[in-house]
């Protein structure tokens, strides 16, 4: 029996359903629907691989044998023919390895790690705004440090945080491309940083109101509007803007407000929700806001969503204040440091800050809710005009 060229053209045309060997690893697979596919089997590094060569009759017997011989020779030289063909296909379609395409692919691969599956678009925005308009069509294998330097130079000092994020995202995209087997320079971003030099940008902290001045501002929020009520609850709880604005009625249970883990900054992939103790004053503010609730949201807007962060900021801006809503977190933290004896880890827990390693947190299974409940009442007492004297946590 011949080792190769076992099949004939006449047999192929009438071959029954099943697998038919031509020899040397070449097989014709006849399907139930009448179609047929050429398959090449090779062994590379002790592992058997199968690769489709094409369908019959578009790929005839003679051409199938030529392809079979070609890929057998590749395997005989110690190279994986499947990977070799993939590399050839990528080279033939260079647009498919453009930075824009690889960026989208990298985002798809990691978006499950991002808050809300990355739907807010923040992960992509530094690249979409400052990198892809210029480098999106460049094959990722051609990208070098000079390309990156020239692209990010205009914002390197003026918008340092955005530039840093863009650089980090680029590094992730390059690593993703390397994992796909593309020949990229994984050091390109580090080299670009060296060419750009140290950023001269001095980060500016969000302006905050001195804790001693908070009671006066709190008292001025006397109208039962959503803006006033939201600002009051922001001051009382110290939570960030997003979970505050997206507060849903079902998250409130008595004197505890439970924020889902996915709604907390810096808690990607976390499974534990964050419990916020509500002082009596905070519960009173929530009761005032309940009549405004719509679609389950305590602070809705007129378009079916929730009030915007800008709404709260503009209110303070119109009042001629330098401080902004997020700054009340600083006001609370400074009060905790200067006017209470709260331990560091309890004070940080008041603002949902993660202060210890994952190992320490795994063994310390407490969120200090009871201690925070006491502090929340005392902070409420302060902002509603109570004493600013030193308050002990054990008193």
TrEMBL record:
| CDD domains (UniProt xref) | INT_P4_C (cd00801)
Keywords, A to Z? DNA integration, DNA recombination, DNA-binding
- Any one GO MF annotation of this record: DNA binding
Q: Does the keyword DNA-binding apply?
A: yes
| The Tyr recombinase domain, residue ranges | 204-376
- Note the InterPro entries from the entry: DNA_brk_join_enz, Integrase-like_cat_sf, Integrase_catalytic, Integrase_DNA-bd_sf, Integrase_DNA_bind_dom, Integrase_recombinase_N, Phage_int_M, Phage_Integrase
Name the Pfam families on file: Arm-DNA-bind_3, Phage_int_M, Phage_integrase
GO biological process assignments: DNA integration; DNA recombination
What family is this protein classified in? Belongs to the 'phage' integrase family.
**Name recorded for this polypeptide:** Integrase
Q: Which organism is it from?
A: Yoonia sediminilitoris
């Amino acid at each position: 029996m011949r080792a190769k060229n076992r099949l004939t053209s006449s047999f192929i045309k009438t071959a029954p359903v099943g697998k038919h060997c031509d020899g040397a690893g070449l097989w014709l697979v006849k399907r139930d629907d009448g179609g047929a596919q050429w398959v090449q089997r090779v062994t590379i590094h002790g592992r058997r691989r199968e690769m489709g060569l094409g369908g019959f009759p578009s790929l005839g017997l003679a051409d199938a044998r030529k392809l079979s011989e070609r890929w057998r020779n590749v395997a005989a030289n110690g190279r994986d023919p499947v990977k070799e063909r993939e590399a050839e296909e990528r080279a033939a379609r260079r647009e498919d390895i453009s930075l824009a395409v690889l960026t989208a692919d990298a985002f798809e691969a990691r978006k499950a790690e991002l808050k809300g599956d990355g739907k807010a678009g923040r992960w992509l925005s530094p690249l979409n705004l400052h990198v892809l308009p210029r480098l999106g069509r460049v094959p990722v294998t051609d990208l070098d440090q000079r390309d990156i330097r020239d692209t990010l130079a205009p914002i390197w000092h003026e918008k340092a945080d955005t530039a840093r994020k863009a650089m980090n995202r680029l590094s992730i995209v390059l690593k993703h491309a390397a994992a796909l087997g593309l020949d990229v320079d994984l050091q390109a971003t580090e080299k670009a940083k060296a060419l750009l030099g140290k950023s001269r940008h001095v980060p500016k902290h969000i302006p905050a109101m001195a804790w001693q001045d908070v009671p006066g501002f709190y008292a001025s929020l006397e109208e039962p509007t959503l803006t006033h009520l939201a600002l009051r609850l922001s001051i009382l709880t110290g939570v960030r803007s997003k979970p505050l604005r997206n507060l849903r009625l079902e998250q409130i249970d008595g004197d505890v407000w439970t924020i889902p883990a996915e709604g907390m900054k810096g808690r990607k992939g976390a499974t534990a929700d964050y419990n916020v103790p509500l002082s009596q004053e905070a519960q009173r503010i929530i009761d005032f806001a309940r009549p405004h609730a719509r679609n389950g949201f305590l602070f809705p807007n007129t378009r079916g969503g929730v009030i915007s962060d800008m709404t709260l900021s503009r209110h303070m801006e119109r009042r001629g204040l330098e401080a902004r809503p997020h700054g009340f977190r600083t006001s609370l933290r400074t009060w905790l440091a200067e006017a209470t004896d709260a331990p560091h880890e309890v004070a940080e827990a008041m603002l949902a800050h993660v202060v210890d390693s994952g190992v320490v947190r795994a063994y310390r299974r407490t969120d200090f809710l009871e201690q925070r409940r006491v502090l929340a009442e005392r902070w409420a007492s302060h902002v509603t005009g109570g004493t600013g004297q030193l308050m002990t946590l054990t008193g």
